[in-house]
Amino acid sequence: MMQIDFERLRAxxxxxxxxxxxxxxxxxxxDAAPLAPxxxxxxHRETLQLHDGALECGARVLPRLARTLADDExxxxxxxxxxxxxxxxxxxxxHARVPPVTRLVRRDADGRRHxxxxxxxxxxLVMGLDAxxxxxxxxxxxxxxxxxxxxxxxxxxxxxxLPDARALYARMQTLRERLPAGAEMLALDARxxxxxxxxxxxxxxxxTLALLGSSGAGKSTLTNTLLGRAAQHTGALRAxxxxxxxxxxxxxxxxxPGGACVIDTPGLRALRPDADEAQVAxxxxxxxxxxxxxxxxxxxxxxxxxxxxxxxxxxxxxxNYHKLLREARRDTMSALERQRQxxxxxxxxxxxxxxxxAKREPx
Length: 363
Hints:
The strands form 3 sheets. The protein has a 6-stranded mixed sheet with strand order 10-9-8-11-13-12, sandwiched between helices. Strands 1-2-3-5-4 form a 5-stranded mixed beta barrel. The chain has helices spanning about 5-10, 15-30, 65-70, 135-145, 165-175, 195-200, 220-225, 275-285, 285-290, 310, 315-330, 335-360; strands at about 35-45, 50, 55-60, 80-85, 90-95, 105, 115-120, 120-130, 150-155, 185, 210-215, 250-255, 260-265. It folds into 4 domains: about 5-95, CATH 2.40.50.140; about 105-265, Rossmann fold (3-Layer(aba) Sandwich), CATH 3.40.50; about 275-330, Ribonucleotide Reductase Protein R1, domain 1; about 340-363. The chain has 12 helices and 13 strands. It is α/β, with parallel strands linked by helices. Strand 2 and strand 3 form a beta hairpin.
């Protein structure tokens, strides 16, 4: 039977629930190899890095597991717990993935799911108070986290770039007016040691934080501050638009001195949350609260008269709501439904072209 050194692995984020899952997973395997639970700390093209609470080492995924994950349109993610064992030559191989407690997943342009991180307690949604400030993007990050079981915390970095406290208050108030009520938010200078103290209540022993945000938002700088050392390389912003230059190229998990873990991630410029309509609605709770006051029960909040939502909400926020809702509906469609939708769009386009042509032709 597999033995688990819980106290050693607790600093890597192992919980009793995950330990029980690991034991159950090991019991289902017929492998005679001495399996050990380890946490995935970094992913590379052909290999990955695993941490056993004391040491970090390289490993590969067994072809059997790789095929199973590919057949399920799934993949390993940084933060996953796996069961690994060495072969006769001492090379370490991953035999199984312990079912994750939480996962953050995004979709690509084709609608395919891609795991971002796994087994995270709190997602630090990082956004700079400089040129990186973008409430629309923050709404997307909240939609990514909504319904995942991961607690979101909005972290506004580069507070030192604002001229005074009034400017900081104005920026935070602009964001609060667009975000769900109760969304936790704090502003800090990611380079300041006090940033680690601000986040200490969320970095308790055994817990895992994940930093999400665009390039140049200060995620790697904040990671270094939490670690108390320069583990992640940080780069200068582009002079033209103040954007980051993808200094961080891979997701990496670090063990913090206080017993928690943090996952630094590359910037996500094109973010498409894996969210359904209910999760999008939860992100835009003000839309749901105002909808009963619209003149029509089936109001779509577009061009109908007497729409309470359009009267009360910022146009940019409402456009973002409709865009996320369209993406969510498209992602839940079957292949046949998508084909029908494309056919309908093409038919509508042909009809419009025919009408335009008829108008141009002399009577």
